[in-house]
Design goal:
2 copies of one chain form a homodimer. Chain A is an alpha+beta fold. The first copy, chain A, folds into 4 domains: 33 residues, no CATH class; 209 residues, 3-hydroxy-3-methylglutaryl-coenzyme A Reductase, Chain A, domain 2 (Alpha-Beta Complex), CATH 3.90.770; 114 residues, Alpha-Beta Plaits (2-Layer Sandwich), CATH 3.30.70; 41 residues. Helix content of chain A is 48%, strand content 20%. Chain A is built from 16 helices and 10 strands. Chain A has a 4-stranded antiparallel beta sheet. In chain A, a hairpin with a 7-residue loop joins strand 5 and strand 6. In chain A, helix 14 runs antiparallel to helix 15. The longest helix of chain A is centred in the last third of the chain and has 24 residues. Chains A and B meet through helix 1, helix 2, helix 3, strand 1 and strand 2 of A and helix 1, helix 2, helix 3, strand 1 and strand 2 of B. Strand 1 of chain A pairs antiparallel with strand 1 of chain B, so a sheet runs across the interface.
């Protein structure tokens, strides 16, 4: 019987104790312990690393680790590694890669890599006084942060600028030090946060040393110091283009023009209708996140920054654009994101390391490019399907596989079911019904 | 030597052929094939399911599968399963659960479960004519969709409403059928898309049967039919509350009041400053996504809908709110999201199924609640850390573990390093330096 009370010290239990408690508390099958063990890696060193990634590790959750070749990016063929639970995403990505490889591939350029963070604080003096002395303060901040920034500067990064912002519209006496950083191949979260926390200490040290200032002026209240995942100045532009009449898969110029024209309208709708924009962008992130997961990058950071970027003009809108101009079809996107390739899970997780090898060990800016390529490729396949056959046809093929597996169909039943449902609507109950009654007739 | 050319038929290769090609094409170590095999599950049936989830499966990518107990939700203690690669997220979630369990726990209520989808089409007739006949059309749409909706209706779901929208501001002659659905315990994507694609066929069938209409009026061009992941009418409200003076961990009313006051200001900033809002919400989704991943739900859909919801008032803002009123501290959030518990990866992935058992097999609305609880819990821990010790202290502890693992430190070295870095800044190079020079002195 489940007890409705808390448990203390759980995180200090051994893995076996945790599993035993779970089984008893929730009345799980006793075999659950063996079941969990079946998902640990046979690679002992790798298993240790995965276990140490998180508190309260019980086992490993498996996602398919896949690749898709034929991503022609700025003239070079790349193989992209993907991790996603969503059926049809990798198939769609692979199809887009192959399609565009025959049409010049993906073009992509970096538009910046600047990241930001803020020290948020309250100060009760006259704002003009702080502004007047800001150069002095900035010098001190940079001096105090030098031990932290030294190594980053050697790698070509560091603090780019420090701006003092007085924002009484948000809170009385509220200020920000709005700081821009370059973090090269690192995601830079720890570096940025360490700098900002140091700035908090330095600010108060500097204020307290202003001997002729009022007592009130000689102290600031630090509210918080934290990097921002909003990175509008860290972004890439990716695009594909080809003559409009080359857009069909089977050399049919008329079909190509129809597709181009409809595709452009569909993308235009996503830029002007929030209901469509959200799902349009979700399709972009299907590709972006699958590559982010494979390379151990933090997809929540990419999602948050990317969607806020999609809302930057006061209305949430689709991220990509499409046009037919002078006989040329162009499909493009600016994607704002920040990722790292040194440190973090990317350098640590054995499978993420292999993913990086598969990508031929890109720099952070190259990885930004590949993520944007994956996003545009995914978007291309989704919109193309939507304006031609509809989304359900492809989805249902994969969905049918999943349903057949859930229902433990034999290989023979699967083959028969695939034939039967080729031209029929797929639903869980229809497949169940089919397996019950229609096979073996 | 890598060949810079495409490969065809890759998806039809066997797994061994794919791996061999990859090793040869990229000059990977020949042991990579064995390495990949080490990450397949020992559970053969489970492995088959995971392989069939995606095209081009090579192996499995492992994330830590963890749990945190002590989530008191509407008076019931729950154990939450989490999947995340980010160190410190699960520790933070567990800490928040324990803290609030002593203060009444999490309160959560559903504010709706309506989902939407749109049929996008062009029609060249007079908009008033279509509006005039819309009731007739709607009846036909519902009749034609009956074979699809039948089963969903038996489960209490179905089509809630169909609205015709004329939107010439977006495109000339552009319309939407904006359709609201209830999908009960299913995420409903396939159901909604099937209904909408049927509506496209039915619309044209109905138009073509209007014998006395002009030829132009008797045909619509279907642009696309697709569900929306923007779900502002599918949402939950979650909150924690306690007397302000009870907010400290060690019964210190003064510290409690300071924390409450600073916490409220920090949350207020996140509602008014986009740079802060993005990272604030990212912290919310750290919790939401960790539970979404564990239960096999599509986190891209949740992210896209959630962030667009955060931008619904024309400015991207933090999702949570905090206040101190009449001596009571309240921290709350409205989260818009749609998830399913039947069908999809949730019902299919063996570990997601276990995660659902750990959650005691919730309904879709209950799972929505838990996801929101995880989001608020994660947000609480992050903001609390930010306004007290700073984020780096906790981060660095986990970060140190990761660095030590990357550097293959022995258990002895790890223990020594943890002591050494207790009051020092942690960076990769400092830890490397320390291991080289300072151990064993």
């Amino acid at each position: 019987m489940k007890e409705n009370r808390p448990i203390s010290g759980f995180s200090k239990f051994s893995k076996t104790q945790k599993t035993d408690w779970l089984i008893q508390q929730l009345g799980l099958d006793a075999s659950s312990a063996d079941f969990l063990a079946d998902f640990e890696s046979k690679n002992v060193a790798a298993q240790k690393i995965i276990e140490d990634l998180s508190e309260n590790h019980l086992s490993n959750f498996h996602f398919p680790f896949t690749v898709a070749p034929n991503f022609l990016v700025n003239g070079q063929y790349r193989v992209f590694p993907f991790v996603t639970e969503e059926s049809s995403v990798v198939a769609a990505l692979g199809k887009a890669a192959g399609f565009w490889a025959k049409r010049g591939g993906f073009h992509v350029e970096n538009l910046g890599t600047e990241k930001k963070g803020q020290l948020h604080f309250s100060w009760k003096g006259n704002p003009d006084k702080l502004k007047l002395h800001f150069n002095e303060l900035e010098t001190q901040l940079r001096v105090d942060a030098a031990p932290i920034t030294q190594k980053m500067e050697k790698r070509g990064g560091g603090i780019l600028s420090i701006e003092l912002k007085y924002l009484p519209g948000i809170l009385p006496d509220y200020y920000q030090l709005d700081v821009a950083f370059e973090t090269r191949d690192a995601m830079g979260a720890n570096f940025i946060n360490s700098c900002l926390e140091q700035f908090g200490k330095s600010l108060n040290h500097w204020l307290s040393s202003q001997a002729d200032w009022d007592a009130e002026e000689r102290e600031a209240e630090i509210i918080m110091a934290i990097l921002s995942n909003y990175v509008p100045a860290s972004k890439v532009r990716v695009w594909v283009e080809c003559p409009v009449e080359k857009l069909s898969e089977n050399d049919d110029p008329e079909a190509a023009c129809r597709l181009a024209e409809k595709f452009v309208r569909a993308v235009h709708i996503s830029r002007n209708d929030v209901s469509r924009a959200v799902t349009h962008n979700k399709g972009i992130f299907n590709g972006v996140d699958a590559l982010a997961l494979a390379t151990g990058n933090d997809f929540r950071a990419i999602e948050a920054g990317g969607h806020a970027f999609a809302a930057r003009n006061g209305k949430y809108a689709g991220l990509s654009e499409a046009k037919n101009e002078n006989g040329i079809f162009t499909f493009s996107m600016e994607l704002s994101l920040a990722v790292g390739v040194v440190g973090g899970v990317t350098a640590l997780h054995p499978m993420a390391r292999l993913a990086m090898q598969i990508l031929e060990n890109p720099s952070a800016t190259e990885l930004m490019q590949y993520l944007a390529v994956a996003g545009l490729a995914s978007n291309w396949s989704a919109v193309r399907a939507l304006v031609t056959t509809g989304i359900q046809q492809g989805h249902m093929k994969m969905h049918l596989s999943n349903i057949l597996n859930t229902l433990n169909a034999t290989d023979e039943q699967k083959a028969a079911a695939r034939l039967y449902f080729e031209k029929r609507e797929v639903s869980f109950s229809d497949v169940e019904q089919y397996l019950k009654h229609d096979t073996g007739r």
